[in-house]
Amino acid sequence: MLEINLNMYHAVALAAVLYWLGSVLCNKVAFCIPAPLVGGVCFAAVNTILYASNVAFISFDDTLQTVFMNIFFTTVGFTVSLPQLKKGGKAVVLCLILAIIVTFAQNLLGVGIVGALGADPRLGLCAGSIALIGGPGTAAAYGQVMDEMGIVGASVAGLACATFGLVSGSIMGGPTASRRIKKHNLVCSSRSDASGNADVSEDESFTSNSPRFVKGFMLLMLALGIGSFVGAVLTDVTGITFPSYIGAMLVAAVVRNIVDATKNEFPGEEIEVVGNMSLSLFLAMALAGLQLWLLVDLAVPLIAALTAQVILMLIFAYFVVFNVMGKDYDAAVMSAGFIGFAMGATSNAMANMQAVTKQHGPSPVAYFAIPMVGSLFIDFVNALVITGMLDFLS
Known about the structure:
By secondary structure, the protein is mainly alpha-helical. It contains 13 helices and two strands; from the N terminus they run βααβααααααααααα. A two-stranded parallel sheet has the order 1-2.
C-alpha cells in the first residue's frame, strides 16, 4: 500500500482547500452544516476508500491542527467579561445541569444496551460519555486505562465511537436548530428593528486597521503562552487531564477583563476574525484525519448503543434543551451547540452554532454559555462520573 505523508504545511493547505470545497457544497443545500465538516468528511471518505482498497493511505502532520484549536478557544476566552457573566450566568448554570443529566444518561444507556447484548458492560462507557461528552481526547486517555484493566478493545472502541459522535453531532446540530427557528418564527434580537422586522442583511463587515489586528494577535499569543503554564498547573493540582486550551481560555478571560477595567480599547472583532479562521482550519484538519474504517470494526452492541445515543440526543436537544433554555432564538442556537459538544467536541459545538448564526444572526448568550460548559465545567463532572462508574462496574 502506498503511504502518503503530508507535512504540516501541506496539511494546512489541504485544510484550506477542503474548506473551500465544503463552502461550495454547503451553498447547494439548505442545512446549516459547517463547511469545514463537509469538506473534511469528503476527504476522510476518499481516504477510507483508498485504504479499504489497499491502494493508498494519506496521513498528515497534525501539529498545526492543535495550534489552530488552541488559538480558537483562546479567542472564545476573550469573549468572557464580568458584565457578561452576570447577564449569562443563569444560562451557564442551566446548560451545565442539562449536560450533567446527559452525562449520566449516555453512560446508563450505553452500559445497559451493551451489557444486554452480551458484551462487557464496561465497554458501554466507550459508547457513552467517554467518547461523546468527552470526545476523542478523553476516549484515547480512558481507552488506555481500560485496556490496562483488561477490557479488550476499549481503545479502538472508544476512538471509533468518538469518530461517530463527531460526525453525527456535526450533522445533527444545525438542522435541529434551524427546524426550531423556522417552526416558531424565531428572530435574532440584534437583527430586529424597532418595528419588529428582521434585518436579514448578510453584511458582516467591519472597519479595522493593521495596528488593531497586531494588538489583537499579540494578546492572543500572550494568553496562549501563559495559558500553557496555567493548564499544566491545573492538571498537577487536580490530577485531571484537561484539554490543552483550558489554561489559555482562562488567561484570555482575565486579560479581557483587565483591558476593560483599565478602559483600554479591546480589539474584539479582530480577535473574532482570527478565531473564525482558526476554527475553520482546525475543524477541516480534524475531520480529514478521521479514520472512518474504524467504524467497520464496531461490534453490534456498540452500533446499537450509538444508534440509541443519536435518538436520545435528538429528543433531548429538540424538546428539553430548547424548552429549558427559554424557547427563544438563543435557545435554538444553544440546542445546536449542545448537540455538538454532547456528541463529540466543543469545537463541533462552536462550528454548529457558527453555521446557524451565519444564516440567522448572532447569539452572544449561546457563544458564552456553550463553550464555558462544554470545554470547562463538564470535563470535571465527566471525569468523576467515568471514574466512579468504572469502579462500580469493576
